[in-house]
Amino acid sequence: MAIWLGLAVVGCQKKQAAAPHMQAMPVKTTIIALTPVEQSNEYVATIKSRNSATLQPQVSGRLTQIRVHSGDRVRSGQVLMEIDAQPQIAQVQAQRATEQQKKALYDYDTIEYGRQKKLFDQGVTSRDSTDQAKQAYANSKADYESAVALGKTQESQLAYYTIRAPFDGVVGDIPVHVGDYVSTSTMLTTVDQSRDLEAYIYVPTERSSQVRMGLPVELYDTSGKLLEKTAIDFVSPQVDPTLQGILVKAPVHLAPDVVRNAQIINARVIWTSKPMPVIPVLSVVRLGGQTFVYVVRKQNGMMAAVEVPVTLGEAVGNSYAVTSGLSVGDQVVVSSTQFLVNGMPVHPL
Question: What's the predicted TM-score (pTM) here?
Answer without folding.
Answer: 0.59
